Amino acid sequence: MNRNVLPVLVLLFALVSLGSCTKRERHPMASEGLRGEAAVNLKGFHARPTPDGATVGAIFGTITAPLGDTLRAVKVAPDVAEKVEIHRIVQNAAGQMEMRPVPWLALPEDEPVELKPGGLHVMLFGLAAPLQAGKTVRLTLLFQDGGERVLEVPIRDE
Ligand SMILES: [Cu+2]
């Protein structure tokens, strides 16, 4: 791992742990009735079409957690892609932009977190077939409190 990335990751770790503790204390009852389906708003989720032979794809969209939450993992069926990760884009020591996996994603209370080109995104590796405009990809989002959301993500140019 790049030396410049480590402090950022450590900081991210600290912020995430801190964030989720405070949220739990502030809303001791809020999460209990919501187990099973995470209380988050998902907007504008879409995947970009990929050319023939491409092995990677990306999904974008906006997540808002009214009470705060943490996105723990993302999944698609194995017949869509071999591996899925949350990525962010950072500048490396040489000044180039690089993608880095994010172990989890903090969702501050009522603050939209945008996954967009050039920033955070859901990354698909090992695509079984190109992502075709007009079709959909079923994406599962797993959140801190055990809640999950499954959505049919449209594939479109945007
Ligand atoms: Cu990526």
TrEMBL record:
User: Which PROSITE patterns does the record associate with it?
Assistant: PROKAR_LIPOPROTEIN
Pfam families, alphabetized:
PCuAC
Q: Which InterPro entries match?
A: LpqE-like (IPR007410), Lxx211020-like (IPR058248), PCuAC_sf (IPR036182)
PANTHER family referenced in this protein's UniProt entry, alphabetically: BLR7088 PROTEIN, COPPER CHAPERONE PCU(A)C
* UniProt-recorded name of the protein: Copper chaperone PCu(A)C
Biological source species: Eiseniibacteriota bacterium
